[in-house]
Structure formats: structure tokens, C-alpha cells
Amino acid sequence: MTAEVRFDAVQHRFGSFTALHRVDLTIAAGEFIVLLGPSGCGKTTLLSILGGFLTPSAGRVLIGGRDMTHVAPKDRPTTTMFQDYALFPHMSLRDNVGFGLRMRGIGRAARNARSEDMLDMVGLADKAGRRPHELSGGQRQRVALARALAVSPDVLLLDEPLGALDLKLRRQMQEELKAIQRRVGTTFVHVTHDQEEAMAVADRIVVMNQGRIEHCGTPQEVYLRPANLFSANFMGEVNRIPVASGGATPLGPMPFGQGTLCLRPESIGLAGDLPLGPARLEEAAFFGAYLRCHFRPVAAPGMRLVAHLPQGLHLKVGDEVALFARDPVILPPEPGAVA
Ligand SMILES: Nc1ncnc2c1ncn2[C@@H]1O[C@H](COP(=O)(O)OP(=O)(O)OP(=O)(O)O)[C@@H](O)[C@H]1O
């Protein structure tokens, strides 16, 4: 029902192009892991290697401690759920969900009982006799999940499973996916390029870039303590302030070594332990939960700081306020990175 996954020095080349450089990653049994990164970073390649649809150019894949590198997809304890659901239009939901069990020679009565349990789990018990075209997109997605889990895989692979849903439904399905994963305890490996989705569902996020893992950690770790500028930027908006050796910055001296000071918009405010000096409010927009403000520091008018302040502050464009920050992250200089 669940298993540990290990990628051991996995590399993949398509001809002369290296899609995965050298990936070492251990996923605990029962963990919800999200592979996150921009288009082309190698997420699907890594997932395909785990599912057995691609054989890596080098390295090994272990599932539950067993070397699966050269084992065919159908002989692995994995199932894959794709974005397009791939439901059979002419079959009832019960038969769709029971399809994998039928392929394994499970008799009708046991199959139907399992299908109905699975449909119950995804909240569609009363629709077992319906056909896929009678369902909404979100419901079809739930059927695909029920079908993937019906065969009791140790590891479920999800390739952009919510990509076809509108934003509101996506958010709702993320919560359901997470709740179902907790209930079944199966290891989930989920691919997305949406950082909010990653944070909503993951126990740990693997941030990928150009065939490499940039950072792997809990949503809090990758958001609040990014390992590098790529992860900091990819996980959300960040203000970047260059720090020269000796702690010199355009805002005055600061107690940091050379690098880039990264501050999330919600870490900048009118109180905090790191003074940023006076700044002039240039623009403010109401975003419901917060006020999104652009400030020009008096000491560095060429720089712009974005801060999310609590709404209800009576600030006007042109006002000058003393800004402070919390949760500073200082990242070392990187070759080629623009601070
Ligand atoms: N069959 C192939 N032949 C050649 N190059 C490929 C092949 N499949 C993928 N690639 C390349 O390998 C890189 C990684 O592709 P991959 O599909 O893993 O990226 P991804 O992170 O999943 O992107 P997306 O979010 O767009 O699906 C890309 O640069 C892609 O162009």
C-alpha cells in the first residue's frame, strides 16, 4: 500500500541533451512529494523514470528497497494518473474504477465492492452507474483518482493532475487530494509548475531547474529558507537587495556578509527587527487580505520594495514611513545571478 522511493544518481539524456544531470532523492513511504519547476526542468522525465516509461541513461530507481530500473511499468507497484483522466466513455464509473482490477483477473463481485468503496472515498458513491460524460471536470478527476488507487499501488504518480481545472476547483481538489492521500497512506509523487499547488499539498517540495534539484524541503523550508536565488524566486515574489562585502547595501550598512538579502513582501512592514530606513509610498493597491505597496527607499530611490501591509493602515501615496523587515534570508552570491 505504500513504499519508499529512491533515485540513486539518476541521469537522463535525450540524444546529446541532458534532461536530468544527477538526481539523488529519497522519498519516504507515505510521503506526499511534489516535483516543482518551470517547463522543461525535467519533472516529467523523472516521473516517467519512476513509472518505468523511460529507462535512465545512468543510475538506479528503487521502490520499497527493490531495484526497479529495468522493470516494465506493469510490473511495478506504481500507477499513474494523467491530466486527461483517460476514462472510458462507454463504461459506468463502477467499471471504470474496476478496470485495473479486471485486468488483474479479480472477479466481478470483489471488483464491484472495491470500486464502490473507492467511489465512496471520493464522494461519488451515488453515481456508480453513471457514465463519465454525465460528470463535471472535478468529478471526472475524482473518478480517475479512485481508479488509480483501486489497484492499491504502493506509489501513485500524478502528472499535472489538476491542470485542466479552473482555479477555484483546483484549490478545492488540492485539499481533497491531500485528505485522500492522508487517508490511504500511499506515497504520492505529484508533478506541477504551480508553486501554490505545491505548497497546498506537499509534505516536501522538490524544486527543479534545468535537470537538477535546487532545493528539497517542506513548504515552509523552501518558502522561508530557500537554498538559493532560483528557489527563492520560484516559490514566490521576493525583494532582493545586494549586499557587498562588509555589509554595505544601498539602504546603508547591514549585519550580513556578501550576498543577496531576500525579503518576501509580507516580511516588510512598519515594525520588525531589521531597519530598512525611510521610504516613500509610490503606489498602493487593495488586494482584500492585504495592501500591496510599492516603496522607494529614500537612500536608494532607484530601488523599489514591494511590501504587503495589513489593510486599514491610513497611508497615502507620497507618505514617508520607516520600513522594517523580519525573516531576512541572505543568500551567497551566485555565478551569473542578477541580484
Ligand atoms: N523525447 C524527448 N526527446 C528529446 N528531448 C526531450 C524529450 N522529452 C523531453 N525532452 C526535453 O527534456 C527536458 C525535460 O523535459 P520534461 O518533459 O521532463 O520537462 P518538464 O519539467 O516536465 O516540463 P513541462 O512542465 O513542460 O512538462 C526538456 O528540455 C524537453 O524538451
Automatic annotation (TrEMBL):
Superkingdom, natural source: Bacteria
GO molecular function, one term: ATP binding
SUPFAM superfamilies, per the entry: MOP-like, P-loop containing nucleoside triphosphate hydrolases
Keyword Nucleotide-binding in annotation: yes
Record's GO cellular component terms: plasma membrane; protein-containing complex
PROSITE patterns recorded: ABC_TRANSPORTER_1, ABC_TRANSPORTER_2
Domain ABC transporter: 5-235
A GO BP annotation: putrescine transport
Keyword Glycoprotein listed: no
Keyword line: ATP-binding, Nucleotide-binding, Transport
PANTHER family, per database record: SPERMIDINE/PUTRESCINE IMPORT ATP-BINDING PROTEIN POTA, SPERMIDINE_PUTRESCINE IMPORT ATP-BINDING PROTEIN POTA
Protein name listed in UniProt: ABC transporter ATP-binding protein
Originating species: Paenirhodobacter populi
